[in-house]
Amino acid sequence: MRRLIPVLGALLAATPALADYQRMQAEGSVPEAMERLTAAVEEAGATVFATIDHGAGAASVDMDLPDSQLLIFGNPILGTPAMQADPLAGLHLPLKILVYADGDGQTWVAYEEVEETFDELDAVEDLEVLKRMEGALGNFSSVAAGE
Questions:
Q1: Where is the signal peptide (predicted)?
Q2: Which sequence spans correspond to the domains of the chain?
């Protein structure tokens, strides 16, 4: 048992923390949740830059992957102050929300917490716009989930 404790500790330290992500169950299929998400983002005045269909990518190389789509979107009113504070914020922007199905067919909506996204950028982590980004991600995800 004494040998097992250091091994478990090392494994836990090497495992990425799931607390860095917000995730919620969604009603309906991945395409239905993505439709709700895209509509919410556009209605809020943000720009949809891309939709990445991971499932279609897997299918294109004859591999199986449950439905999984990533929406990439942003709003310069929120993103510009972060990049003014530190240009490296541009590596994390625009924002992203993933809608995916698990192995049981349950649809999920997930995003990385904004605080974690910009954690390494000291000049950015105290900006008021980060709270607004987090609120937008939460609101859009709730709509996508059908809440």
A1: 1-19
A2: 18-145
